[in-house]
Amino acid sequence: MNTAFAPTEALDRASQPLGQIAVALPGATAIFRRLKLDFCCGGQIALQQACDNKGLVVDEVLAELARLDRPETPVVPQAPAELIEHILGRFHAVHREQLPELIRMARRVEAVHREHPDVPKGLADHLESVWAEMEAHMGKEESILFPMLLAGVRGVVVHPIGVMREEHTNHGEQLERLMALTNDATPPTGACNTWRALYAGITQFADDLVAHIHLENNQLFPQFEPVRSGCC
């Protein structure tokens, strides 16, 4: 993640309301919740003022938020060792931060807005299922497949790669269900900050998961699979 944060950007963010930051910067809700900064009902208060009210050092909070910023054009390595390291840091670690917070927000939205006609009923349970399958999948890559690839093993890795590809297909189906439950992550008119932040986080998770699967399916795995000859 990009930790560079220009002074003018920090000044702008410090003057932004908590609710605006929560919606625009997926992951910020977890920081606000830990620091007891109310981004939902008190979301109209600027970050600077909210920090002053709580006796927090705004620069420290800004530094935490800056770590959530993403580079617009990340450089993706091609060599297997560096590519695996990139996948572990940019995707595995990030998914482990994203999903628990999305589940927490989904539970809250479903409980608080249970009478709303657009409430995403079953969303938290679905995210729990996604999280369980993702954690099992990433664990297999980290403990079995990636060590084999890093050791330069070939031939026998075709089968575990095939299993990972099948599970990636399942992840894609789970994403389709996720989008159906959330109206393509589009919050209804008048949705609270938590609801809007939840859907913004789901959008980022979906984008990240698609990019994650693409890197493995199309850049990492082909380096260890037999080259298919043409049919003619």
From TrEMBL:
It is found in: Cytoplasm. Residues 86-223 form the Hemerythrin-like domain. CDD domains: Hr-like. Keywords: Cytoplasm, Iron, Metal-binding. It holds the Pfam family ScdA_N. InterPro entries: Hemerythrin-like, RIC_family. Its main location: cytoplasm. The keyword Cytoplasm applies. NCBIfam families: FeS_repair_RIC, PRK10992.1. PANTHER family: IRON-SULFUR CLUSTER REPAIR PROTEIN YTFE (PTHR36438:SF1). This is Iron-sulfur cluster repair protein YtfE.
